[in-house]
Amino acid sequence: MSSGKKPVQRILVTNDDGARGEGLRVLEEIAAELSDDVWVVAPEFDQSGVSHSISLHTPLRVYSMSDRYHCVRGTPADCVLLGVEYLLRDLRPSLILSGVNRGANLSDAVAYSGTVGAAMTGVLLGIPSIALSQAFRDPNDVRWETAGQLAPSLILQALRCGWPSEVCLNVNFPDLGVDEVRGVALTRPARGSIAGVEIDVRTDRRDLPYYWIGFDYNSELLTAPDSDVEALRQGYVSVSPLRFETDTRGDWQALTEALNGCFR
Predict the structure, then answer these.
(1) What whole-number distance in Å separates Cα of residue 47 and Cα of residue 227?
(2) Is residue 1 in a domain?
(3) Which of 112, 132, 2 minimizes the C-alpha distance to 49?
(4) Are 92 and 84 in contact (CB under 8 A)?
(5) 64 sits in which H/E element
(6) Average pLDDT over residues 201-227
(7) For the chain, percent helix, then strand, then coil, each to nearest 5?
(8) Considering just the CA atoms, what is the radius of gyration of the chain in Å?
(9) What is the CATH number of the domain that holds 60?
(10) Which is nearest to 30 in space by CA: 154, 141, 140?
């Protein structure tokens, strides 16, 4: 990117892996290529899987490392709300970036993603927002450089082109080297990447039960041709437009009549 005035006035950066997440450092570097005014408001601890959750029953504690770097004991959505409406209240951010998530956020998993939840919260505040994730096969060898090198120009081009204000972009980078990526594919989430739910039952020292929840994934069996999973499989960066309102168009006459029958 050429030197001189950077194209984005102010960027708010957050994530769901927590303030110590390696992807947050990568995203800071991405944002710094686009703006001279980058603010980090990120969860103090890992908040993976919290979706759009906000903290209504506990106060938010903020630990400020500098004027523009704040750790919040809360969710990614809390961070966006607190950042936009309080910490950056003098000038709202021009762009919200969430990530870079350690691992892809694809298909069914998008519904649970705190990374996507932060971006969607930005959309609900009327701010262009993008969620970014880096896929990996080997957890000890995450290709952060792929997202780090490709994201700045992708984000800038998206901003220049524009997209509907009610949509956030969910961007997933494949587990490939920068030179191996084939391009960008516009995709959609598809059902079928989550095979089931596992409940791990354990007992504490007082002989009381507690539970761990986890998913079984079978993305390798999902073959929808225009899906985000297929795009990554083929070596493309997946870009999925997501909106808060889901499309429920269809024939609902039978259900409407059945429900109205309750009052007759």
Answers:
(1) 26
(2) no
(3) 112
(4) yes
(5) strand 62-66
(6) 90
(7) 30, 30, 40
(8) 20
(9) 3.40.1210.10
(10) 154
Residue 4 to residues 1, 34, 35, 36, 213, Cα–Cα distance (Å): 9, 11, 11, 10, 49
Among residues 121, 133, 59, 35, the alpha carbon closest in space to that of 84 is found at: 121
* C-alpha–C-alpha distance, residues 213 and 205, integer Å: 20
Q: What is the sign, positive or negative, of the torsion defined by CA atoms of 36, 41, 47, 50? A: negative
The pLDDT value given to residue 173: 98
Domain interval for residue 95: 11-190+223-246
Q: What is the dihedral of CA 51, 57, 59, 65, to 10 degrees?
A: -10
Q: Residue 207: inside a domain, yes or no?
A: no
Q: From CA 242, how far away is CA 244, in angstroms rounded?
A: 7
pLDDT, one tens digit per residue, over 8-31 is 999 999 999 999 999 999 999 999
pLDDT tens digit sequence for 148-190? 999 999 999 999 999 999 999 999 999 999 999 999 999 999 8
Answer yes or no: is pLDDT of 222 > 90.
no
Provide the domain count of the chain: 1
Give the integer Cα–Cα distance in Å for 73 and 178. Answer: 35
Q: What is the pLDDT of residues 119-153, one digit of tens each?
A: 999 999 999 999 999 999 999 999 999 999 999 99
Centre a 10 Å sphere on the Cβ of residue 90 and count the other Cβ atoms it contains: 6
Whose tokens are 């701010």? That residue is: 127
Residue 95, token pair as written in the block: 């762009």
Report residue 3's pLDDT band, with 50, 70 and 90 as the boundaries: low
Nearest to 50 by CA among 89, 105, 6: 105
In a domain, 258, yes or no: no
